[in-house]
Write a structure and sequence with these properties.
Distance between the termini: 49 Å
Number of domains: 1
Radius of gyration: 16 Å
Number of strands: 6
CATH superfamily: Metal-dependent hydrolases
CATH topology: TIM Barrel
Number of helices: 6
Order of helices and strands: HEHEHEHEEEHH
Low-confidence stretches: none
CATH architecture: Alpha-Beta Barrel
Largest sheet: 4 strands, parallel
Length: 152
């Protein structure tokens, strides 16, 4: 028997209400994608074209499609966080598909990699730093791209 996914219109409406607020306030919205209707990465950018959308973990579970989409859309970005989804190879692929200007450093904190009861950003930072990227690309990923979003 095949499972049928039931979509609660109320949940989609709540997401759209939050997106409308973010667009009106000029604030970015970060999204974890799901599957089915909850994986429709085109929904918010198409309905709210001025909204800045950042997809976590390079758009997992659809990283190739999301990264390619981000390359084409001025207000769509991907973060490259989480050792559960990202590694140096996946980071290089996300950058190749989306472009270095569309990728943001993300810590995925405060989860995982705890040291002295504090989240250790060093693990993720090292993972990005050792991906073989040029210093200018690293500067964009670690700061300049996000600062550009804040200035919009």
């Amino acid at each position: 028997m095949r499972a049928i996914q039931i979509v609660e219109p109320r949940k989609i409406a709540m997401l759209e209400n939050a997106a409308a607020w973010c667009q009106k306030q000029g604030k970015p919205m970060i999204i974890h994608l799901g599957t089915g209707i909850y994986g429709d990465f085109r929904l918010l950018p198409e309905k709210f074209p001025a909204l800045c959308v950042i997809y976590c973990h390079a758009g997992v579970p659809y990283p190739n499609q999301v990264c390619e989409y981000a390359r084409e859309k001025p207000n769509v970005f991907v973060d490259i966080s989480s050792s559960a989804f990202m590694n140096p190879r996946a980071i290089r692929k996300a950058i190749a598909l989306a472009g270095v200007d569309k990728c943001l450093f993300g810590s995925d904190g405060p989860y995982h990699h705890i040291r002295n009861q504090m989240f250790d950003f060093g693990f993720y930072k090292k993972m990005v730093s050792t991906s073989g990227l040029l210093p200018e690309a690293l500067e964009k990923i670690f700061s300049r791209n996000f600062l550009g979003i804040l200035r919009k």
